[in-house]
Design goal:
The protein is of the alpha+beta class and 395 residues long. The chain has eleven helices and ten strands. Helix 3 runs parallel beside helix 7 and helix 5 runs parallel beside helix 7.
């Protein structure tokens, strides 16, 4: 053991005192669980217990009372303080207890027995909302309201043939549009269509399911800037219906035909933003600016769809819009920045990637591809001309 003369001079909050001996107590912390009719127990290990240090020492001299008073003031000061331990050096500690003794046989001396607990910063539990999960909950509520609203308005039962044919034509038009973007219309067989036309709630549910269908594209990973492709696919539906002319409401049957068309277009548009919001919660933008831009695009789509919504649909859609905006805002705040980098001379893309980002596990190939995708003016990866290019700043 190190000799006493090698120990550091002890002090607490700058007040010195002499140490005769010291000790340390520690261990694991946690409850011990015991059970009826069992002789053993189970210790639930919750981690290391904060170490306790005990020091026995004294102050001595004609002014030992003044020295003891200064040490007492330091020991009784609120909060943590700095202990210079004879062996372990500087420690941030609290003082749960101390003991002072004076003896008639020991003149000019005051003894101390001190107990210190090593302390860190007090960290209170922090609460944070799962914004992505909240988007999913609000989306479910808005979808239910959308289906109910459609079922309340859309009706081809006991209507003239032209009303029924018009309603069926709306559905087949949508199936054709879905086919063109890669969603197979055969997911809704024609032989089921007649039955669904008289069950508007089931029809709406099936159509929203088709709008939510996510085709797989094995080449997606090779397509530049494809991170928001699926979200954009949902956003395109918010402008659906421009191909239809307004139906003059000259008779009761024409009024129903017109209402069916409006309800159907509303269903598709709302289904698109429902899907776009859901996908945005599953998508992480590459940069903060792109996350903000996505939030702005989603908000614009909501503004285009909301004016025609009834109260029963308007409120759930507004709640979903708010949840989506909050989710994108909070997750985008911690993303890297998109910045402009000025090249004074030509350089290969791979060299620039290494210069900007250092060593990468793949040798910089992914960073090179990222630079090329963001700057389509680069015609050859071996030669980036002088000028400004867009890059992601990881700092």
């Amino acid at each position: 053991m190190t000799e006493a003369y090698d120990w550091r001079p002890a002090s607490f909050r700058g007040v010195p005192f002499r140490v005769e001996e010291f000790g340390r107590r520690g261990g694991r912390r946690g409850p011990t669980h015991t059970y009826p009719r069992r002789d053993d127990g189970a210790f639930e290990d919750l981690g290391l217990a904060p170490p306790k240090f005990t020091l026995k020492g004294h102050v001595i001299g004609d002014d030992h009372h003044d020295q003891a008073k200064r040490l007492l003031d330091a020991l009784e000061t609120k909060g943590t303080g700095e202990l210079v331990h004879p062996r372990f050096g500087q420690l941030t500690v609290s003082v749960p207890e101390y003991e002072l003794t004076e003896s008639i046989s020991e003149q000019r001396m005051t003894r101390f027995s001190l107990t210190f607990i090593r302390s860190g910063e007090i960290e209170y539990p922090s609460a944070s909302a799962d914004t992505q999960s909240i988007v999913g909950q609000r989306r479910s509520e808005a979808q239910t309201a959308t289906i109910d609203d459609f079922a309340r308005i859309f009706n081809v039962s006991n209507q003239p043939n032209f009303v029924q044919d018009s309603g069926k034509g709306l559905v087949t038009d949508l199936l054709g549009a879905l086919d063109r973007i890669g969603t197979p219309g055969r997911l809704m067989p024609v032989n089921q269509l007649d039955g669904l036309m008289t069950q508007p709630a089931s029809l709406a549910s099936r159509l929203l399911g088709l709008l939510n269908y996510r085709p797989t594209n094995p080449l997606q990973s090779l397509q530049g800037m494809s991170w928001r492709r699926d979200v954009d696919r949902g956003l395109t539906w918010s402008s659906y219906g421009s191909q239809y002319s307004e139906i003059p409401a000259t008779t009761i049957s024409r009024q129903q035909q017109a209402s069916n068309q409006v309800a159907f277009v509303d269903l598709v548009q709302r289904g698109g933003i429902l899907e776009a919001s859901a996908l945005s919660a599953e998508t992480t933008a590459p940069t903060r600016q792109e996350g903000v831009r996505l939030r702005e695009d989603l908000t614009a789509s909501y503004e285009a769809v909301l004016p025609r919504a009834s109260d029963t649909v308007y409120r759930p859609l507004v709640a979903l819009r708010s949840a989506t905006g909050r989710d994108l805002g909070e997750r985008s705040a911690s993303l890297p920045e998109l910045t402009t980098f000025k090249l004074n001379g030509p350089v290969p893309a791979l060299v620039l990637a290494h210069r900007l980002y250092g060593d990468e596990p793949d040798g910089g190939a992914s960073r090179e591809a990222e630079i090329l995708a963001r700057n389509p003016k680069i015609h050859h990866p071996g030669f980036i001309p002088p000028g400004n290019i867009e890059v992601i700043s990881d700092a």
